């Protein structure tokens, strides 16, 4: 089966003053379409870096990243922006809504780049996705007139509005109380099941991990384990010992 995301021997270094920080250290990973994948690991382990690379917000220091089997590592900034506006939706820990825009305008925002979508179609999409996240009544509210959970629902609608193949969510529940966090996760799962959208989210919360059906554990910028959840909801975890283990064929289940 072809992968929706493929990461091949990726390294990412940051320069912090005089010091080189090795954020990702030889990551190889293939992600199948339609999964609900959790990237787990302690703070500083490289989760955000990995999501930013998959989302083409940042580039690897070396190695290749493929989105729908297309190598994105060589693309120009403009080509990447174009790819993002068609294939990738983003959800952030701090929601990242534009405070001066209403809920509906926030959802519409990423569509404005898409010259192929008419104003009428934009409006239809905004209405449709606000309805999916249960916020039709709040279309004209600004973010400061919404609760945290409602803000994250707007962010989910905004991510979905481009009809992306992949939604990337960086600790989407970290700024929400437990109950709201689980609600948001269940909503994401429902969308994953009904629309077939691949979800890749980072977390360090076991309750959040338990909703996933694929797991990638990272530590110090390397993958420590892969997990696949069976139909019986039992996790099969494969610990990574060396690079030859890191291949899709080796994932159990
Ligand atoms: P996580 O999301 O798992 O907390 P990150 O991907 O944010 O981890 O960070 C991985 C490592 O890279 C950490 O050591 C962090 O301090 C470092 N790092 C992340 N972004 C930068 C940056 N822009 N400049 C320098 N170091 C960074
Ligand atoms: Mg992070």
Q: What features would you describe in this structure?
A:
The protein has 253 residues and is α/β, with parallel strands linked by helices. The chain has a single domain, classed as 3-Layer(aba) Sandwich (Rossmann fold), CATH 3.40.50.300. Helices cover 30% and strands 28% of the residues. The chain has helices at residues 47-54, 77-87, 103-108, 119-132, 148-161, 178-195, 206-209, and strands spanning 5-16, 19-31, 36-40, 62-67, 70-71, 88-91, 166-170, 198-203, 214-219, 222-229, 235-239. The strands form two sheets. It has a seven-stranded mixed sheet with strand order 6-7-8-3-9-10-11, sandwiched between helices. Strands 2-1-4-5 form a four-stranded antiparallel sheet, covered by helices on one side. α4 packs across α5 and α5 runs parallel beside α6 (178-195). The longest helix has 18 residues, at 178-195.
CATH domain topology: Rossmann fold
Could you tell me which ligands this complex binds, including any ions or cofactors? Answer: adenosine-5'-diphosphate, magnesium ion
How many DSSP E strands? 11
- Spans of at least 5 consecutive residues whose pLDDT stays below 50 are none
**Inertia-based shape:** globular
Distance N to C terminus: 15 Å
Physical arrangement of strands within the biggest beta sheet: 6-7-8-3-9-10-11
Q: Name the CATH class.
A: Alpha Beta
What topology emerges from the helices and strands here?
Elements: E1 5-16, E2 19-31, E3 36-40, H1 47-54, E4 62-67, E5 70-71, H2 77-87, E6 88-91, H3 103-108, H4 119-132, H5 148-161, E7 166-170, H6 178-195, E8 198-203, H7 206-209, E9 214-219, E10 222-229, E11 235-239
Parallel strand pairs: 3-8, 3-9, 6-7, 7-8
Antiparallel strand pairs: 1-2, 1-4, 4-5, 9-10, 10-11
């Amino acid at each position: 089966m072809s992968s929706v995301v493929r990461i091949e021997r990726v390294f990412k270094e940051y320069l912090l003053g005089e010091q080189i920080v090795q954020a990702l250290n030889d990551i190889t990973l293939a992600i199948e379409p339609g999964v609900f994948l959790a990237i787990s690991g302690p703070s500083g382990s490289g989760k955000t870096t990995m999501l930013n690379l998959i989302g083409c917000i940042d580039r690897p220091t070396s190695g290749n990243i493929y989105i729908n089997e297309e190598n994105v590592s060589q693309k120009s900034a403009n080509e990447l922006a174009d790819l993002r506006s068609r294939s990738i939706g983003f959800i952030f820990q701090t929601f990242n809504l534009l405070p001066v825009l209403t809920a509906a305008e926030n959802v519409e925002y990423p569509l404005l780049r898409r010259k192929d979508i008419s104003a009428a179609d934009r409006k239809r999409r905004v209405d449709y996705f606000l309805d999916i996240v249960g916020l039709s009544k709040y279309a004209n509210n600004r973010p400061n007139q919404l609760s945290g959970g409602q803000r994250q629902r707007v962010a989910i609608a905004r991510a979905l509005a481009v009809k992306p193949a992949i939604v990337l969510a960086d600790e989407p529940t970290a700024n929400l109380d437990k109950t709201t966090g689980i609600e948001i996760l269940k909503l994401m799962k429902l969308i994953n099941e009904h629309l077939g959208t691949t979800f890749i989210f980072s977390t360090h919360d076991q309750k959040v991990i338990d909703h996933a059906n694929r797991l990638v554990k990272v530590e110090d910028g390397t993958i420590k384990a892969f997990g696949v959840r069976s139909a019986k909801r039992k996790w099969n975890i494969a610990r990574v010992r060396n690079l030859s283990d890191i291949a899709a064929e080796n994932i159990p289940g």
